[in-house]
Amino acid sequence: MTLEILKQGAEGRLYIGEFKGESCLIKERFVKKYRHPDLDTQITRQRMKAEVKAAGRCLAAGILAPRILHSDLNTHKLYMEYFGKAQTAKHFIQKTVAESDADEAKQLLEVLCTRIGSIIGKMHANNIIHGDLTTSNILINPNLTDYDVIFIDFGLSHYNQATEDKGVDLYVLERALLSTHSEQPYLFEHILAAYRQECGKEEEAVLAKFEEVRARGRKRTMIG
Are strands 4-8 and 12-19 parallel, antiparallel or unpaired? Predict the structure, then answer.
């Protein structure tokens, strides 16, 4: 069967395909030539397993993520639910800013950020660490009345109760927002406000750790 390439990135290719009669997205990870073959195989399998586990844990916790239909560790392919009408949060934010006046865009994006923050808080309350929180790894999928927010790309995810890991997760997202959406500095503020409401009894400890991680990051930036 000829597969239709949807996207090619640094980590692999995305195809539109089929699994047991169901239209699906196929994610194929590249072989990294600069790594020893055995190490590359080990890392690739670890990341595929991490993605399967995290997606399953999210769905069990009531968090939207793609259903994993099949995992083939030999060919380095994951077969997963395909959201054909979805767009990334990155594109959604950029499109909203471009097509709306400043006040309307801010209002719409505040609603989106509240949802994103609530979901990340729920993930952390369930000890799910995403590992690569960016607006490219969040999908906005329209439905009949509104839209769904779906988290994807869990290759760097893990299950951990440590407040340090949760703080790092938040810091990675903050840095991604500052880099990609620098003209909308209010985005992270609204995400963090919603996060506080959902992350559970460890709220203060996680946010304190986040401030520590942020301070370390600033120090590294100043030192170079």
Answer: antiparallel
